[in-house]
Design brief:
The complex is a heterodimer of chains A (323) and B (481).
Chain A (H helix, E strand, L loop, with lengths): L1 H26 L6 H13 L2 E5 L6 H11 E2 L2 E5 L6 H5 E6 L4 E6 L6 E5 L6 H13 L1 E4 L2 E4 L5 E6 L12 H4 L2 E5 L6 H10 L13 E2 H12 L5 H16 L3 E3 L3 H17 L7 H12 L4 E2 L1 H5 L4 H9 L8
Parallel strand pairs in A: 1-9, 1-10, 2-11, 3-6, 6-9
Antiparallel strand pairs in A: 4-5, 7-8, 12-13
Chain B lengths: L2 H30 L7 H19 L5 H27 L7 H9 L8 H21 L4 H25 L9 H20 L11 H22 L2 H30 L25 H5 L4 H39 L13 H35 L2 H19 L10 H11 L4 H16 L6 H33 L1
Helix pairs in contact in B: 1-6, 1-7, 2-3, 2-5, 3-4, 3-5, 4-5, 6-7, 6-11, 13-15, 13-16, 14-15, 15-16
The chains are: A alpha/beta (323), B mainly alpha (481).
Chain lengths: 323, 481
Amino acid sequence: MGKAIVESDLEIGRLKKACEAFCSQVGRVIVGKAETLELIFVALLCEGHVLLEDVPGTGKTMLAKTAARVFDCRFSRIQCTPDLLPSDVIGTHYFNQKASEFEYRPGPILANIVLVDEINRAMPRTQSCLLECMQERQVSVDIETISLPRPFMLLATQNPIELEGTFPLPEAQLDRFLLRANLGYPSEEEEQRILSRFRQSDPLEDMTSLIRVSDLLDLQKLSRSIFIEDSVRDYIIALNRATRDHGDIKLGTSTRGSLNLQAASQALAGCRGRDYVIPDDVKALAVPVLAHRIIARTEARLRGRTEEDIINEILSTVPVPTE
Amino acid sequence: MKADSAKYLLLSALACTEFCWLLTAMHLLKGGFHLESFPMIWLFSCYFLAFVCERLIQRLTWSRLFREILIWSTGTWLTGLLVVSPLFICSDGGNPDWTSILLRALAPWPLKPTPELVTLLSGMILWGLGIRLARLTIDFAAIATAFQFGLVILIFLVFTGNRWEILPKGFAFIPPAFFFFALSGMSLAHIREGALGSSPYRIHWFSMLLLAVGIILGLGLVFGTLVRPDLLKQIVIILKHGWHATVGLLWKFILFLLSFLPEPDPAQMPLLEQPGAVVSRVPEWGRILRIPDSVRSAARMIYLLLWLIVIVAALWSVSSSIVRWFAHRLHGDEGAEITSVTGAFREDLIRFIMGLIDRFLALKRRLDRFFRLRNEKKSIPPEVASVRQVYTQLLKWAASKGCPKDAALTPREYLHRLTEWMPEARWELAFITHQYVHIRYGPSTPTEKVLHKMRQNLRQLKRYSAGGQSEKHDIIQGVKG
């Protein structure tokens, strides 16, 4: 028993160390966004996809690029435009005249970490071709189905302000993102640090990879083995069910929302050095994991209530499993 | 006009509108069931008393469940009192058997409605309506729907009363009073709430309402004057002749078609029964299937109820479509979304049913949770149970000292609150909370040493509290001195 606990502690210590290393390494480029960096690492541990939503110039793309650099894995970037076609994303068959046969030329989606920049600028046809990649982790090209490399993570960015010429993401696609994160503007002190860091050179160029792909796969397995008590699982279910019965919500969260919240809570517990999930983990992740999955009623929106407000209200009403 | 006085006027208008059709309904009940000692005044006082009680109880800071229990138990007692009061008053000084009276009231349910049962049910319904009135948000929508619903009920009651010939003598005053109160209420609400959008009909909305009601009443009057019994008789005779002619033609046509078929062979025809022979029309096995009279009467009642529901639904549908058209014309905006008004009977009914379902599900969830917790508690190791017990003691102690835990707070969030509340005990509080969180949500079990230290910390906390209170007391005494 004692030996098992010691081994478990060591393993969990690995998770915490990896998280700290990731945050400190990315923190060299992205200043003062520790919570968002932790969320990105949580998503990596769950092999989930992240939607970074914020106004231009807050470092969304930079964060995605830096996060990819920390891992020794294949990274690619897709810049979405209205004329981007599904074949530009998933690849296409072309006729090789030398070999006299059709050959598959992989698209940028066949990478471990894919940055899909300004995803809402791609037309719905291209957006929906990403659905299969995100959920099934495979692509279908003509009659062939190709598995994507593991781990596979999609970091998408979108600007919520400039909506002209954009195609809002459908609910089905939003539901496939593990979490939605915001960066927000830096504080005055943080902005000064950013300016001093980027004064002479780009710190991104000096970045070296810290975590190997095989290590990341191990960490993912470890994260999934973190203990979650029945009452905490019930709490997750209660939160999800509350979104379905809330008066201000037109569409509540799906079962995928519960599954993702559970997986993310396990990963966060590991990142914080625990081998068990506590309700605080669930609460900390409820807004990033659930807010983008619900649709608020028009009346609520007109009253100025956002999805985040509604989730926070649910968090303040659903009883936590204690004595 | 002041906002408060307008509000009370609106409330009065709504109450009087409801009172009109309730009065008709009570008279019909009295006449229909031949209730000589029907305590109508006392029943109506239930309606107004429920309103007052609900308004008073709403001011209490108790939980909603307790308030509901209080208001409904008061209503039940009062209506129960109404049921037993006639016998109590008329008794010769002896001790009346209240229980047997109440049992007699409820015993024949639902087949034979007794006067006691009718009084009890009416009292409860009026009590419920009084509570509803107290909870209703009084606005244009509420008055309009009260008018709509009341009109449907009134038409239905008039139809029923006319059929049974039990309409009260002073009934002629009730419909004008109903229209007066409803229309006054609507106009007041309109003045209070201001404009009704940018419709060109907005200015003349009251005239339009009066015109619509006038047309309906006028048409009713014209029909009532023209359609005399002899005219109706003539129409029925014409229809009867037409029906017979049509059926006769059809029958002739069928016979014509049958004439093409071959004649049956007389030898193959079945033998006729001997005249005078007694034939048992109902076979032995058929007697088993004979329906008892009680079932027949129940089925008859269900059949009648179904018809009543169909009639009410039809009347509702017609009146709501009229009101919808009216609202649409009033609004005037093409393509505007017209939503059903709040407080409408349909809304109330749906909300009531949904509320019942929700309460049932909530009760089921609580029972499930209770039984699951009981099973869990049985399977919890004693060390873990001890840790949970220590934390429970901490919660009880903190609540008794004025820092209760909100159900939606996690132990760690509550720890922040506790340390702010009692900073001198932060180490003890943190130790107990962290150990509790570790044991409660984690897979491990505590050692005896940890358990001992938790208990020690809890004792220390209680000492802090006592010391803190005596210190505060000393400071107060010092200030006074």
